[in-house]
């Protein structure tokens, strides 16, 4: 028994216009209330290199330290009494050079303290440029 024989069934209709209106209002609200702030950037001033070669090469003081704790400056054995005495020996070996580079060549079995002694003596002598030499195996 079908009493609805002549009636056609109506499909439900979904109206999207009110939904789109509400979304636009929400987007406008978000655009107006959002604050745009720039994050602080780290300012870095990088050095610029020139194509010219350096004409004066700094003088190098080669300080060698062996495993027994003996010191040599430019191949000349030097006794280490104290850091002040060794700083004086470094100044004498520099022969009046303004900023020589102190190159430390330490034996692999040398103690850390002997290398620190050379670094402290170089600081007392006023030499701030220190480098360490290495050897390939």
What does this structure look like?
The chain has 137 residues and is of the alpha/beta class. The chain has a domain at 60-132: 2-Layer Sandwich (Nucleotidyltransferase, domain 5), CATH 3.30.420. It contains three helices and five strands; from the N terminus they run H-E-E-E-H-E-H-E. It has helices at 17-33, 83-94, 112-125, and strands spanning 60-65, 71-73, 76-78, 101-106, 130-132. Strands 3-2-1-4-5 form a five-stranded mixed sheet, covered by helices on one side. Strand 1 and strand 2 (71-73) form a beta hairpin. The longest helix is centred in the N-terminal third of the chain and has 17 residues, at 17-33. The radius of gyration is 39 Å and the shape is rod-shaped. It starts with 16 loop residues before the first helix and ends in a 5-residue tail after the last strand.
Low-confidence stretches: none
How many distinct beta strands? 5
**CATH class descriptor of one domain:** Alpha Beta
CATH topology call of one domain: Nucleotidyltransferase, domain 5
Kindly estimate the percentage of residues that lie in beta strands according to DSSP.
15-25%
What is the helix content? 25-40%
User: What is the structural class?
Assistant: alpha/beta
SSE order, one letter for each helix or strand: HEEEHEHE
Radius of gyration: 39 Å
Shape: rod-shaped
CATH arch. level architecture of one domain: 2-Layer Sandwich
Average pLDDT over all residues: 83
């Amino acid at each position: 028994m079908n009493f609805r024989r002549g009636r056609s069934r109506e499909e439900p209709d979904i109206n999207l216009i009110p939904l789109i209106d509400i979304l636009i209002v929400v987007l406008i609200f978000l655009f107006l209330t959002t604050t745009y702030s720039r994050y602080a950037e780290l300012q870095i001033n990088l050095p610029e290199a020139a194509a010219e070669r350096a004409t004066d090469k700094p003088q190098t003081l080669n300080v060698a330290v062996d495993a027994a704790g003996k010191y040599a400056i430019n191949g000349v054995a030097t006794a280490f009494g104290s850091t002040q005495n060794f700083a004086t020996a470094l100044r004498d070996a520099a022969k009046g050079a303004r900023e020589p580079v102190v190159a430390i060549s330490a034996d692999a079995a040398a103690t850390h303290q002997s290398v620190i002694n050379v670094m402290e003596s170089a600081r007392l002598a006023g030499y701030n440029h220190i480098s360490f030499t290495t050897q390939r195996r």
